[in-house]
Amino acid sequence: MKQFDFLEKITKNGGMVQIHLDVEATSLRGEGFAIGGFIRQGKNILTEFELLSEEGAKKAGDWVKENVLPHLKEMPTCKTQKELRKYYFDIFNAVKGKVLELNKLNPWDTSVLRQKFAVVYDNGMPVESQFEMDCWKQALENAKDDEKFGIELGGAYMPIEISTVLDVKGYNPDLPRSEAAEALGVIGPKHNPLVDAKQSAAVYDAAMKKLPILNKYKTSKATVYNVATLVSDQKIISDKDTHR
Asked: What is the rounded distance in angstroms from the CA atom of residue 118 to the CA atom of residue 99?
């Protein structure tokens, strides 16, 4: 990713810019140590990214050592966790900054920004969300006082969660991603973050378009409701709408 050359491909009217991110962690609630993904605008993939932290890989739990590390041998590496987090933080800020610039927005114009830019996860809690939190904590620790407010505004506000999209569209949110993605022509090893990001994106796109190839994964009712909530006197009143 030579000095973010891909940023020149982002245009004002080319559609939403998305960072599709997948993270491998030392354990389910451990540190993210390998990341992969791609950046696209509309249908156009602008660039891919991947990096593994040697420091983080050494902390991997037994299950990760057996099931994940064998698929990561060809990944580019850095020495430390700090380098890995800075690598992603720089990508995020470069992309978001370009979108803000093209659309003449301020970082706090979130209602407009979320129509122009998003980070996309697949079951991003706790791994991807925790990795992003670690990136921002690190940036804040190294920032001057007058820089901190801007950094705090820099998070992945309103990320797109693929499992929720599947559920709302009428598909099993736990459908096997690799199986569905392979049927869509996206093939690769499991637990490789770049491959995982591509496969999840293929399933996401198919769900958004309601492609027949996903019909076998349809459910009769969403498990996640479109809920309007009113919090009053420590009570939550919900208006459940199955929207199908």
From this structure: 10
Model confidence over 156-206: pLDDT tens digits? 667 899 999 999 999 999 999 999 999 999 999 989 999 999 999 999 999
Domains within the chain, CATH numbers bracketed: 2-217 (3.30.420.10)
Which pLDDT belongs to residue 109? 84
What are the DSSP calls for 195-212, one per residue? HHHHHHHHHHHHHHHT-G
Strands of the sheet containing 77-78, edge to edge, are 77-78, 44-53, 32-41, 17-25, 117-121, 160-161
Do 56 and 84 meet the contact criterion of CB atoms below 8 Å apart? Answer: yes
Q: How confident is the model at residue 148 (pLDDT cuts 50, 70, 90)?
A: confident
Helix count and strand count (H, E) for the chain: 9, 8
C-alpha torsion sign, points 112, 115, 117, 118 = positive
Question: DSSP label at 171?
Answer: B
> 59 near 84, Cβ under 8 Å?
no
